[in-house]
Design brief:
Elements lengths: L9 H32 L28 E2 L9 E7 L10 E2 L7 E2 L8 E10 L12 E5 L11 H6 L16 H7 L6 H13 L12 H18 L2 H15 L5 H4 L2 H17 L6 H22 L10 H18 L4 H17 L22 H15 L7 H13 L22 H14 L2 H9 L10 H6 L17 E4 L4 E5 L9 E6 L15 E6 L2 E4 L11 H7 L8 E3 L13 E7 L3 E7 L5 E2 L4 H9 L11 E2 L2 E11 L3 E22 L4 E3 L4 E6 L4 E9 L3 E6 L21 E23 L8 E3 L2 E4 L2 E5 L9 E5 L5 E4 L5 E2 L2 E2 L8 E7 L2 E7 L11
Antiparallel strand pairs: 1-4, 2-3, 2-5, 5-6, 7-8, 8-9, 9-10, 10-11, 12-18, 13-14, 14-17, 15-16, 17-18, 18-23, 19-20, 20-21, 21-23, 22-23, 24-25, 25-26, 26-27, 27-28, 28-31, 29-30, 31-32
Helix pairs in contact: 4-5, 5-6, 5-8, 6-8, 8-9, 8-10, 9-10, 10-11, 10-12, 13-15, 14-15
Amino acid sequence: MVNPEHTYTPIVIIKRRIEDMKKLLTVLLVCCLTLIRSAYASCPGQIHENVRETPFPQKHNTLYINPSPLLVPLEMKQSDYLQFNLSQDKRFESAGSILSEKTPWCMFNPHRILENGTWYWRVRSISRSGEAMPWSETYTFTVTEDVPEFVTPTFDVFLNNIPKEHARIYCFLRDSLDNARKAMRQHPDFEPMIAESREALAMDYRTDRNPYSKVSLMYTHTDYLNTAYTMFQRNVYAEKMVQNVRCLLTAEIDQKVIGNDFKAGELAYLLACTYETCYERFTERERIQIEEIILTVLNRYLPHIINKEEVHIFDNHFWQFTFRHLLQASIAIYDKYPQAREYLEYSYELWTARAPASGFNRDGNWHNGTAYFSANAISLFYVPTLFSYLTGTDFMQHPWYKNAGIGLAYTWQPGSLSAGFGDGHEQMNPKPLRIRSAFADLMARTTGDPYAAWYSSINDRYKDESETRLYRLASGKKRPEATGLPADAPKAVWFKDSGEMIANSNLKDGKRNLSLSFHSSPYGSGSHTHSNQNAFNLHYGGKAIYRAVGHYMNFKDAHNLLDYRNTRGQNTLLVNGIGQPFSIRAYGYITRMFNGEHISYALGDASNAYCGISEYPMWINNFKSEQLEQSVENGFGSTPLKKYRRHIFLLHPDKVVVYDELEADKAVRWDWLLHSPVKFSIDETTRTLVTRNTEDNFSSVAQLFSEQACSISQTDRYNAEPNEKIAVRGEDFSRPWSLTASFAPCKKTRILTIIQVEADGKQAVEIIRTGNSFQCGDWTIEAELDAKRPTALYIRNIRNRATFSLGKKNPEMNGKIYQCRKADASVLYDRIDGEWKTQEMDDREMQITGKK
């Protein structure tokens, strides 16, 4: 056969081969791009599902606890009940296989430790008549020894230990009451209790034509009177409670009250509490009336609770108050009405599966915003206390409670602003709220947690907290002596599950403490959290240096949508002026963290956070009601962002370094954001930003470095001004300053920021730059700013030799060459847990609970 190339001249042949090579290179390039896109596509659309779309757990999911609950989407419930099958035998034939009873909700708790290894499970629907539908497909997951163990007894243990007689709501106090009554006059809570009870006795609801309009006040007074009666046993308090309830019994039920979940819960509690405490003082007819009103509340809410709360990531109002109030009402009448017993069982199983903090949080921090922990505090203490007493199992051995003391201490330090993430972060709260102090006190008394004891000894506002007063008076449990912060308290804490890192220069001296808080959360944005992945706040002496801005006036006004929870109001980044939507899809993730004595470090990845607009009906309706759109002009929309990794350091004691890796599919403008309570002094030539707090005598100097051209502007105006006329929380409407450093459009860039905080008249040192090396006092910082070159960062202290390295295969650590296991790992040489050592870390695997 004749070779066809023989018919062509050599030049033609060469040209053809060049064309073939081009085609081959094109194919290879496409393959590479496909692999790259595939790698990016492997990142889940969301780490957690807002409403469950897929069964959990599966082989790609993370187990947060052993035993793990089995959860399925509501769509899989095709009839009246579900039945679950769980086994280590894929045929489900072994003696150890578990076949659940039929259940009306979309969850199952094994209530036993699951042995290490592979587990198989399936589910099927069953009708009320007993007709079973085919089994679902079989799902698998693996239990490993590193999964924390926490097992609860089955519901029948809880049910069988409920006292047959009243009172049940506070049955966990009965064993200590006699001794507590003898010593109550010497108790610090005695005089406040007397003052509150007098206030309640003085109120006469009989003069009110619509006593239901006063349900919230009556709820508070019921608590005052019940505490006083429980301790004193004087008729005057019980008789007043009865009188108040009789005002409700003689009035027409106000459907507006029943329709408000908070007020309905308060109504159910005050009726149930009085019913129990004063049972013999009511007539049989009155008891039935009380029971009927409680049932009216239960019947109103149960259809909207069961099959919703177990598959929803976190329903604010329900977990804050409604869950507890309906539990308290149900336990009072569970033996008379099936609705109450059903809720009692549901609440027990739901708490086991999804509490104390969504079921996917073990770190002790509150995933739904630091300030909004306070709305959950009473329930977070009451429920495990009741369940522990009635089951004989300590529910506070759950990992979240074991870490709650350190969570309290670090995320909102005594005498300080909070870490600053989520609703209620404003400077109107310059120190922790009273209920936070009360929760810490209760934790200290109940568990002996040393952080909770230290925290409540300094932040002792619990002494004025009324809802927890009965426990302090009646439990007989003493506060442990707080000898100070635990000696081994870390300088920095990584709250892995909620996505925060808090680093402090000197937590033991709050007036001179430099505190850095960093947020990149797998829970995304929405609810009471903000669009603030990879955002940071910085405080000195508890006062803001740099902090998110805006005011929580209400949940849906223009200021809330365009400033307060908008990415514009956070110390993070905009891409072409676009931020992160209000969605659980807009998640971040802290992938690495070091806690050294001289270097605290975290790496946050917000590459998936800039993902369009919110899909949730509530936010869509909120924008619509304000006649606003989720538009580019308002900071919402799609972006070509591929990478946003922020490395952040506290170089002890007074310097912060931020190193941003930024990349997009096409050239974009990068808007780097910083907010301050005082005006910036800007030197645009050197990109130096200075703020001075003259009142507290400290200053901050931040300097930006990048290969890209940059323009810097600042404003003290919001996109939508807060409505000062509706201020109800003592808001300080002093205007903060918002700075934007806009870097010229490009596909890739790196931004290095060095911040120096100086107090008591000290001056920031001059940063001496030589190429990509920056000398800042005792610290040498080498940062690769050429985005075409591999990421590299090397930080070293010339005095103590503490060293951080990123992107070097063989960095020098303490005069020796260290061989990295992975080329792109972060490496730290520092004193860690009292010992000088070298640590290496690459990215922590995402803890996914939704679909892959």
